[in-house]
Amino acid sequence: MQAGKAKGFFRSPPGKFGIHLAWGIAAGISLLLLFAKMVEDLLYHELGTFDTVVAQFIQSFASNGLTKVAILITQIGSPSFDIIIMLAAGSYFLFRLKHTWEALVLAISFAGGGLLSYALKNIFHRARPDIQHLVNAGGYSFPSGHAMISATFYGMLGYLIWLNLRERNKPSWYVAVVTAIFIVSIGISRIYLGVHFPSDVAAGFAAGGAWLTACIIGLNAIRYYRKH
Fold first, then answer.
1. Strand ranges (DSSP E) for 80-122?
2. pLDDT by residue (tens digit) across 75-126?
């Protein structure tokens, strides 16, 4: 009897919300632990082998054509381009779809990711790789701002597109795949172009993913309490 009640609860809106919340918290904590591990390895100078092996592998594919593609991808992940996409997407959600909270959380994911990246860079003061940079890059290296903001902003944008397609009963699985490939490509481009260590990019994804998870949890909580 109690087993049946338990199944009924987990199938109810509060139960489903609780399950999603638990998974979200677990994912966020896991990403924070990963970032903390990378910080520990950075402080104890244990990232050298990882950075060397991964960077040499990625840069071994260098060619004129691939360099042009990498520069294009890294420019798409630049702050100026991100702001344009943010204004366009935010305006669409706000004025066309009338989804005020989604537009607000998208802006928060972008602004929070940028501020967090700036703060972390100025905490760790890691210099960029001492090799030829194929694009201009200033400031500190750890974590990668491109990787972090792409994870937070484009991750949230992809989630919102996926969510809206799903609610209209339209195919949505491909959005997650395209979003993940796009975000990873931005991170790889930074390594290929010599402006970041692989650990900078991995740390950016970990910290950005944790912030993205927090934003998604917040949005889902708002949506749940507005409906109930």
1. none
2. 998 888 999 999 999 999 999 888 999 999 999 999 999 999 999 999 999 9
Distances (CA, A) of 11 to 3, 162, 217, 221: 12, 22, 19, 17
Tokens found for residue 119: 């703060």
How many CB atoms within 10 Å of residue 140? 18
Separation of alpha carbons 96 and 219, rounded Å: 19
Widest Cα–Cα separation across the chain: 68
Angle (CA) 213-214-215 rounded to 5° is 90
CB 142 within 8 A of CB 121: yes
Question: Domain locations in the chain?
Answer: 16-227
Judge whether 156 and 107 are in contact, CB under 8 Å.
no
Angle at 30 between CA 29 and CA 34, to 5 degrees: 115
* Half-sphere exposure at residue 116, Cβ-oriented, CA atoms within 13 angstroms: 25
- How would residue 6 be classed by pLDDT, with cut points 50, 70 and 90? very low
- State pLDDT tens for residues 150-188: 999 999 999 999 999 998 889 889 999 999 999 999 999
Instruction: Read off the tokens for 37.
Output: 């591990």
Name which of 186, 98, 193, 198 is nearest 149 in CA terms: 186
What pLDDT score does 9 carry? 45
